[in-house]
Amino acid sequence: MKFIHAADIHLDSPLSGLASYQDAPAELLRTATRDAFTKLVDEAIGEAVDFLVIAGDLYDGNWKDYNTGYYFCRQMSRLNKAGIPVYLQFGNHDAESEMTRKLILPPNVHVFETRKPSSFQVEHLRVALHGRSFKEAATTENLAVSYPPPIPGWLNIGVLHTALEGNAAHANYAPCSLAELNAKGYDYWALGHVHEHAILQQAPWVVFPGNLQGRHIRETGPRGAVMVTADEAGIQAVERLLVDVLRWHLVEVDARTAVTLNDVVRLAGKAFEALMKDTPGDRYLAVRVYITGKTPAHGELFGLESQLRAEILGQAAALGSDRLWIEKVRIETEQPGETGDIRARSDAIADLQKFLDEAPRDATLLASLVDDLRQMVDRAPMELFQAIPEFQAIRNGDVAGIVQAVSPGLLAQLAIVD
After folding, report:
1. Could you tell me the pTM of the whole model?
2. Domains contained in the chain, CATH given
């Protein structure tokens, strides 16, 4: 017997922070969550699984575009024709959705109740699935404690959308503990809500499949569901089923050996070659590049994020790949020498070093900077606030940190000119 456990699909979720990038693969990004779900249904049919479990957050909040729901119904109809039932639990995002409340789903889709826990029995497999959907988005009560006892001699599966012991990265919805899950006596807990894949234990199995498709740079690496195999003795295997179509990555380029900007660009190209070699050829790659290390190129890189990104994009294009997109380039390098090397000089750069050291504590200077910078920020388009975090700091009047961050690079750049 085989079944697929998926969660956190977030159909048609917008991929945020991309409006300011004219070269972004807009169509692929727009349809990524649907394409990943279509691949999941393809896998379910191709593997002839016995059923599919969706542990919450099928939709993505209060969407009123019924095309999202119609798409889901079409995919469920494909499973219906293949004789594959679906057991669907609504999570916190589904509870906000207009479609959750009104769409009539195909007959093979079985939805867990919201008022109390409910169970579905698959007689020929001797499998029982127990769960409860969210009625309200902010469901902070412990739902697991009221789940029914297991059916003796059957394979019992608990379906639960939960933060599980207050996972810090996600809202504390339907919190519970591993001890409480163990006490239920189920064989497998099909969890959702936490977007990172995790097998927390195996007796009983407690599994977060992770979300189906990464939606932004904080959701890096492979994404998908899990394939579960069982027999009369219980759960035998839980294996990842990767169905993402676009994969987010952080690439760190160690620039310690670089002397010029061109050297940095070549090092980035080598990093891309390694990444593409390690990634299946049918996945598109969205990459954020971090340039790090104490490097002689530090001064030349100061303030050139846009130029460096353009050069690195060219390096990606030179690889002959149409599946690599550079989302952003961050310069986090340092000057190889010590700050004291500049202070020891008897020139204007040394004087500037002293001035910049004192600047974060100079209230008058900071107030003047805020006035000047706010004029620029107030005219900037709203999407730049997502792409440039410093804009919000300027609007809040907090520029001391910005002064501290840019000072080393500014001094290094001037030292090169000198």
Report:
1. 0.79
2. 2-242 (3.60.21.10), 246-336 (no CATH), 342-418 (no CATH)
